[in-house]
Design goal:
By secondary structure, the protein is α/β, with parallel strands linked by helices. It folds into 2 domains: about 230 residues, Phosphoenolpyruvate-binding domains (TIM Barrel); about 30 residues, no CATH class. It has 11 helices and 8 strands. An 8-stranded parallel beta barrel has the order 1-2-3-4-5-6-7-8, surrounded by 6 helices. Helix 5 crosses helix 6. It is globular. The mean pLDDT is about 95. The structure holds 3-methyl-2-oxobutanoic acid.
Length: about 260
């Protein structure tokens, strides 16, 4: 079983491999494949529910996804994304909501942002709730950014991100996700921190990598960011299987004798 301490100890020794999952079946496949961290991402809003942003997903929905993923995990560390507005309004609410994720089987939570969250992160960690940070293109701030743009491009924002990463570390985060930032900046943050960095669109120098499972499987076809590599093309295969089933039912080929009871 992968633990928070194991993840911390992997820095500079072994790359940390992470993927998202939102349901039992996929989580079981990831777990059996030895993935280190399964993130129950709020990207479920886009990938699972077809929303344009991650903002609409609720605590109730994220708790359901987390519960079914955690049920499948015998090996992988399950981390749950705290949805928009579940941790920003008050510290008490953040503690209560984060605790609910642990009650359904997550081993820690992920929050987006840094400075305004420092007291909350410190409190969560103090209360025994491991926290993963998330900097760079934090999708819950898409409207502030004006789209899903590369972050940390100019010196000022790069310096701010380095400062934020150090803040997350000193607040007690066990790892930090760096999303869609230049490789050189991710390299610098990775070398400045003692906790692992997990990159998504942040180049090869991070301590680990994360991608959305449906992207690498070629299941989510609506768009393909540059940082996504497709390791399979499942959408056309599924379409083909469904078309063949439809054709066979229409023509009376299925069910045949072999798939019927005497
Ligand atoms: O919601 C998500 O899937 C994420 C990622 C880092 C992949 O936050």
């Amino acid at each position: 079983m992968v633990t928070i301490n194991k993840i911390k100890s992997m820095k500079q020794k072994e790359k940390i491999v992470c993927l998202t999952a939102y349901d039992y079946l996929f989580a079981k496949l990831l777990d059996e494949s030895g993935i280190d961290i399964i993130l129950v991402g709020d990207s479920a809003a886009n990938v699972f529910a077809g929303e344009e942003t991650t903002l609409p997903i609720t605590m109730t929905e994220m708790l359901y996804h987390t519960r079914v993923v955690a049920r499948a995990a015998q090996h992988s560390l399950v981390i749950a994304d705290m949805p928009f507005l579940s941790y920003q309004v008050s510290m008490n609410q953040a503690v209560y909501n984060a605790g609910r994720f642990l009650k359904v089987g997550a081993k820690g939570v992920k929050v987006e942002g840094a400075e305004p969250l420092v007291p909350t992160i410190q409190r969560l960690v103090e209360l025994g709730i491991p926290v993963m940070g998330h900097l760079g293109l934090t999708p819950q701030s898409v409207h502030k950014f004006g789209g899903y743009k590369l972050q940390g491009r100019d010196e000022k924002s790069a310096q701010k991100m380095i400062k934020d990463a150090k803040l997350l570390e000193s607040s007690g985060c066990f790892a930090v996700v760096l999303e869609k930032i230049p490789s050189s900046l991710a390299k610098e943050i990775t070398s400045e921190l003692k906790i692992p960095t997990i990159g998504i669109g942040a180049g090869p120098y991070c301590d680990g990598q994360i991608l959305v499972l449906h992207d690498i499987l070629g299941l989510f076809e609506e768009f393909q960011p540059k940082f996504v590599k497709r390791y399979a093309q499942l959408a056309p295969e599924i379409r083909q299987a469904v078309l063949q089933y439809k054709d066979e039912v229409k023509k009376g080929i299925f069910p045949d004798q072999k798939h019927s009871y005497d």
